[in-house]
Amino acid sequence: MGMKMIFAIVQDEDKNKVNNALMEKGFRTTRLSTSGGFLRVGNTTMMIGVEEERVQEALDIISAICKPRKQMVTATSPSLDAASFTIPYPVEVTVGGATIFVIDVEQFIHL
Ligand code: 2BA
Q1: Using a 6 Å cutoff on CB, does residue 37 contact ligand 1?
Q2: pLDDT average, residue stretch 69-79
Q3: For residue 98, which of 72, 70, 73, 62 has the smallest C-alpha distance?
Q4: Looking at per-residue confidence, does 99 or 39 come out higher?
Q5: Ligand 1: distance of its center to the CA of 96 in Å?
Q6: Nearest CA to ligand 1 atom 25
Q7: Does domain 3-68+97-105 have CATH number 3.40.440.10?
C-alpha cells in the first residue's frame, strides 16, 4: 500500500477551513507559510501525507472549499527610458482555488 504526499497551495483565506475539514476526516497536515513568486503575497502550502486510497477524498475536500478569487496586482513596468520613472498599472489575476501536487513517497518514518 503506497503513500502519497499532497502539496496543496491554498489562499490564506481558506487555510483554516481546509485544515479543519481535513482534520475532521482524520487526515494529518502540516501547514507552511509560503509566498507566491508572482504576487509575492502570502499563501499557505499544506503538506498532507496520505495513504494512496485516500488521496481522492483529500482532493475532494480541498476542492469543495478552495474557490478562485480575483486579485488586483499593481505591477511596475520600466518606462522606455529606464533611467526615468516606472509606470504602475493594475492587473487583475485570478488566483486559483488551489494548486496541488501529488507525489510518491518512497519512505514514511514516523517515530
Ligand atoms: P503566485 O505565484 O503569487 O501567483 C498568483 C496568481 O497569479 C496565479 O494563480 C496566476 O493566476 C497568476 N500568475 C502567476 N504567474 C503568472 C505569470 N507568469 N503570468 C501571469 N499570471 C501569473 P494560481 O495559478 O492559482 O497560483 C496560485 C499560487 O500557487 C501561486 O502564487 C504559487 O504560489 C503557486 N503555484 C502555482 N503554480 C505553481 C507551480 N507550477 N509551481 C509551484 N507553485 C505554483
Answers
A1: yes
A2: 74
A3: 62
A4: 99
A5: 8
A6: 96
A7: no
**Cell 509560503 belongs to residue:** 34
Nearest CA, atom 34, ligand 1: 36
Q: State the sign of the Cα–Cα–Cα–Cα dihedral 44, 1, 21, 66.
A: positive
Q: What percent of the chain has pLDDT over 90?
A: 76
CA-CA distance, 6 to 98, in Å (whole number)? 12
pLDDT digits (tens, 9 = 90+) for 14-64: 999 999 999 999 999 999 999 999 888 999 999 999 999 999 999 999 999
**What is the distance between the alpha carbons of residues 52 and 49, in angstroms, rounded to a whole number?**
9
Domain coordinates in residue numbering, the chain:
3-68+97-105
CA 48 from centre of chain = 12
Place of cell 478569487: 69
